[in-house]
Model the fold of this input.
Amino acid sequence: ATEEDLERTLFDVDPAVYCHVVISREKVVGMAIWHLNYSTWLGKHGMYLEDLFVEPEERGNGHGLALLRYLASICLERGYQRFQWWVLDWNKPAIEFYKSLGAIPMDEWTVFRSSGESLSKLSQV
Done:
């Protein structure tokens, strides 16, 4: 992603992706980027957290928790029924952190992705 890509997608007049940051000592030390998803089972929107990042030297200071709490409050305020995200299987500290907050891993789903050449081939089917 280029700086222009981020400016266009995050700060356009009508964005479809949103970003919140944590500032400590006049420096951005964390961010959360999210967008809406939709559940046909519920007939309601939800929030999908695309990225949660806190600078390594700032981890353990409550910044990630503050971002997650803020996003959860947006969900409740706007009537979003689900707040979900992915975490890599090897990221044990993140998995334990999320579990400590009451988040439940959804192991019955397999993520599929099509990009690059496979996306081109799929478009021709």
Summary: Strands lie at 18-24, 27-39, 44-54, 83-85. The longest helix spans residues 63-78. The longest strand covers residues 27-39. The CA atoms of residues 51 and 67 lie 11 Å apart.
